[in-house]
Amino acid sequence: MVSERLSGGPNTAASEIAHWRADLAIDRAVKRGRSSEAAALAARRARQAVGTAAEWSALVLPDPHVTLVARAAGELARGILVCSQVPEAVALFLDPWDGVLPQPATDFVAAEEVPTAHARRAG
Question: What's the alpha-carbon Rg for the chain, to the nearest Å?
């Protein structure tokens, strides 16, 4: 589901630029907050969680879909760390996970006032 959204999304120049800008905004917020180590740890744990879930699902690794989702999970984890500073950037990384994340995770993000894809569509 997430892999399909990540690979099937519009690959326009505008979407690529938006993704690049969001990534840079998160990088700057991480550096400003002097939280590079915490961001790296969060990203690594998120990637490992995806890999572990894939192994438990008996997927043969390496798998390009698992790699894609693991990288996206790492990006999102870094963003969540600084989401109060760059909510629009985090929202871009959160979009593919809409409807997938468990309720406590989405509650956490909502508490940080990050506009999820669902909230933007409803509003």
Answer: 14
pLDDT tens column, 36-71: 999 999 999 999 999 999 999 999 989 999 999 999
- Cα torsion through 93, 95, 97, 102, rounded to 10: 100
**Model-level pTM?**
0.78
Burial of 3 (0-12, 13-18, 19+ CB in 10 A): middle
DSSP for residue 85: T
Q: With b meaning 16 or more CB within 10 Å and e meaning fewer, what string describes 23-47?
A: bebbbebbeeeebeeebeebbeebb
